Each structure stands twice: as C-alpha cells, then as structure tokens.
Amino acid sequence: MAGTFRAEVLKLLTLPALYLTAAITWAVAPLLAVASVSAATGEGNGPGPGTDPGLAPVGYAQAGFVVLGVLAAASEYRGGQIRTTLTCVPRRVEVQLAKAAALAVTVLPVAVAAAGSGVLAARVALAAHAPPYGAAGPVDAPGEVRAVAGAAAYLVLTALLSSAVATLTRGTIPAVTVLLGHHFVVGPYLAGRTALAAYLPGTAGLWPGGGTGAGGVLGAGGRWAVVTGWTVAALGAAIVSFRRRDA
Fold first, then answer.
1. Residue 26 and which of 35, 106, 107, 204 are 20 to 30 A apart at CA?
2. Cβ distance 53 to 122 under 8 Å?
3. Nearest 10 degrees: Cα torsion 195, 199, 205, 206
4. 3-state SS track over the chain
5. What is the pLDDT of residues 110-156, one digit of tens each?
6. With b meaning 16 or more CB within 10 Å and e meaning fewer, what string describes 64-75?
7. Closest listed residue to residue 62, CA positions, set 222, 207, 190
8. Which residues lie below 8 Å from residue 144, measured CB to CB, with a gap of 6+?
9. What whole-number percentage of the chain has pLDDT above 90?
10. Nearest C-alpha neighbor of 100 from the set 152, 161, 154
11. What is the model's pLDDT at position 234?
C-alpha cells in the first residue's frame, strides 16, 4: 500500500495541469479577500458580526479544487494509463484508496495556502481601512487558525468528492459540468428556497460565513457530517464501480 501511495503521489506531481490550477486558485484567493474587505468597508461599517471576509474566497476556491479532483482521476483514462496502473497493482480497492490518500496529501498544502492567504490579505486590507486591529476588531489568532483549518479541510473534501465523481464518469467535461453546476448554480438556487439545501455538499460550507443553505438548520457538527458523508458515499460508489467494470 505504501508503494502504491508513493506511485500515485508521483503521478499527480507530473501533471502540469494540476500545477496551473493550483497556482491560479492560490493567486486568486487573496485578490478576492481584498475585494471582500473593500465591499464590507464600503459604507465604513466594516464586516458584519460573525463574518470573516478573509474566508469569503473559499466559496469561489471550490471551483479550483473541483478541477483538481477531476483532473487527478480523469487523467488515468487518457491514453490507457489506467490499464498500466492495474497491471502493476491489480488490487483495485487498494488502487482507489491510494489515489484518494495521494490526492488529499497533494492538495492539502494548496488548500491551506488558499485559505491562509485570503485571511492574511484581508487583515492587511482591514488595517488600511480602520484603526489598529482593523475593522473586525482584535485578531483572534487561535480562532483564525481553526477557521483556516476548517476551510482547508472542506476544500480537500471537495477535491476528494470531485475525484470520486470523475471516476464514475471517466471523463473530465461531464464531471466538471455536474460538479460546478451543483456548487454554483443548483446549490445556491435551492439555498434560498428550501431547507433541504443544507444537506447538499456544496451548500453545507465548513467555514465561517459559508453554507448559505445551512443557516439555522445545521450546526458546525452537522455541516461536517453532511460534507464528510457525501464524500465517503461518493468514494464508496467510485470503488464499487471501479471494481465491477472493465478498465
């Protein structure tokens, strides 16, 4: 298993598209955070209570992690690479578990950088708009560390869920279309119309201010359960499908 895991990590690190997607996602996060601060301080009132403009980009950063997860899985089906993989490691469950672990380890630094850079950029922008400590008040370092960790974990789960969907579809475009449509069209549309939207993975956000459909319906623990449950279910379905069908 350790050898399979190392091989999967090395395969991911040889994909140029993953580097490009990660770089764009990381670069856009602080820009969106500064834009969020500018919008929040436009009236001179600062961010509202319980909100953190530095984590606002997480909702948009989902798109980058959807693409990362899809590319990681769908790349196996280009040029018949999956057949080479199964020739070397015929144990299909082991292959899928190693792929999930490799993806999680690979995208975790990107997730931490995206969430952390957003919070840092927001703090710098707030300091420029307000007296010392910024418009949001004194810095709560432990709280912000927890918030960044939660946001990063959510982004990693998003990548894993996306990878599982791509394994089921075996294609980049179908998986990206379904996932982005859910996260940015269907989820937000349902969030304002039904409480059931809180139980969808894209609207049960795990960061402060995230999860528009979860307000008043699920607490932090419930949101964790929803997103983790969807991810585990998708990975399970991907494993079952991968075992039963031809490569």
1. 204
2. yes
3. 120
4. CHHHHHHHHHHHCCCHHHHHHHHHHHHHHHHHHHHHHHHHCCCCCCCCCCCCHHHCHHHHHHHHHHHHHHHHHHHHHCCCHHHHHHHHCCCHHHHHHHHHHHHHHHHHHHHHHHHHHHHHHHHHHHHHHCCCCCCCCCCCHHHHHHHHHHHHHHHHHHHHHHHHHHHHHCCHHHHHHHHHHHHHHHHHHHHCCCHHHHHCCCCCCCCCCCCCCCCCCCCHHHHHHHHHHHHHHHHHHHHHHHHHCCC
5. 999 888 887 887 777 777 765 544 444 555 667 678 878 888 898 99
6. bbbbbbbbbbbb
7. 207
8. 52, 54, 119
9. 19
10. 161
11. 93
128-132, 197-201, 212-216, 242-246: range with lowest mean pLDDT:
212-216
Distance (Å, whole) CA 242 – CA 153: 26
Residue 79: exposure state from Cβ atoms within 10 A (0-12, 13-18, ≥19): exposed
Provide the 10 A C-beta neighbour count for residue 15: 15
Res 65 pLDDT > 50: yes
Q: What is the mean pLDDT of residues 55-59?
A: 75
How many Å apart are CA 127 and CA 122, to the nearest integer? 9
Which pLDDT score is estimated for 49?
Answer: 43
Q: Greatest CA span in the chain, whole angstroms?
A: 63
Phi-psi category of 6—alpha, beta or left, where left has phi over 0 and alpha has psi -120 to 50? alpha
In angstroms, the CA 128 to CA 132 distance is 9
User: What does the block give as tokens for 59?
Assistant: 């909702």
Tokens of 146: 């927890």
